[in-house]
Amino acid sequence: MADPVYPRLVAARLRGQASYRVSFALQCLTAGLAFGVADLVAGQLDELPAHIRTGSFDVLLLRPLSTLAQVLTADLHLRKVGRVLASLATLVWALARNDVAWSPATALLLVVTPVCGAVIFAAVWVVANALCFWLVDGQELANAATYGSNAFTSYPLTVYGPLPRRLFAFVLPGAFVAYYPALALLDRPDPLGGPALLCWLSPPVALLTATAAVLVWRFAVRHHRGTGS
């Protein structure tokens, strides 16, 4: 019988998350709530490659509406709403058991952080799936970018090496989804020596990321040639 390595890794991760409060709050803020909201809003983009291959996306071009808005509002899965509600309950439970120095600023941060995190995740979803306009089979790449970024944000930034740390913090701004806000919520300095200002930059980073995603989408649609069917 094969050695049950995977269950051991899962158990080790759970112990590590439970003993490292910043990481635990990070997990709740990111995979639990921000990603759940992003999946609810932008998860429909996973169907984009199929629409491109079959030519059904070309129908959207004939309507006087934003193609991105049409794709995002094409369907709504109620099970995703349940995931968001469960994640919200988990977040409340986790924060009740962590030493949060409550103030108007931290309360506002707690409200804004999941929203900004969802915007960042949704922007990654848009950009990753926009590549499918040029790639024959870009679904795997899109999934790696979207679900991979969710897995990446489940761990503290300190566990990664210098190169992926810089990539993740400033190119794919996953560190602003929850790592930096969680430090502010728990009133802890950045172990990597980053300035405290980074903990409050999620809103402008989310705005810039969303703007870039919309520009990439418009560029991709403008150069889409259709399937000819």
From TrEMBL:
The keyword Membrane applies. The chain crosses the membrane at residues 20-38, 108-136, 167-186, 198-220. Keywords: Membrane, Transmembrane, Transmembrane helix. It comes from the Bacteria. The keyword Transmembrane applies. This is ABC transporter permease.
